[in-house]
Amino acid sequence: MKEVLRYKNCFVCGEKNIGGLQAKFFYDGEKAFTDVLATDNFEGYHEIFHGGVIASLLDEVMIKALLAENIFAVTAELTIKYKLPVRIGTKLKFTGKLINQKGGKLFFTEGELIDVNGTLYASASAKYIKANDTLKAQIMKSID
Predict the structure, then answer these.
(1) Tell me: the pLDDT tens digits for 96-135?
(2) What are the Cα distances from residue 137, in Å, to 31, 72, 89, 103, 140?
(3) Which of 7, 21, 45, 70 is the most buried (most CB within 10 A)?
(4) Which of 58, 61, 102 is nearest to 80 (CA)?
(5) CA distances from 95 to 30, 44, 65, 132, 137 (A)
(6) Which residues contact 70 (CB under 8 A, 6 or more apart)?
(7) Which residues contact 121 (CB under 8 A, 6 or more apart)?
(8) CB contact at 8 A, 49 and 90
């Protein structure tokens, strides 16, 4: 298991972003994952974790699965299916994995959000496009 690359100012994973989630992502050789506590700092409706924050975490965990394999890409399409509202105080686990690729440039991923009991709160799928050399150089400036 290894920690996945991150950018210190990223809203999701940046350790220096005091207004962000500061989530740490790991990779077990098959999937990326992170554990997050739903706090009221990211509340949407009263006592409910914001759906946009959930979307950000799902996007991030899926792209971390690519980064862990040294694939530098950007999000082209993201689909989220919300199953249940997440209550503030819930301990969450986000996972993401690469499921397919096409032509070495288009990558298909899946992600999910569960709690410690295995209850499914949201699932996601996404398409990522491999970064060209110019964009990869820009991304590399972001990596700690």
Answers:
(1) 999 999 999 999 999 999 999 999 999 999 999 999 999 9
(2) 25, 10, 39, 21, 5
(3) 21
(4) 58
(5) 10, 22, 9, 26, 27
(6) none
(7) 54, 82, 83, 84, 85, 86, 92, 113, 114, 115
(8) yes
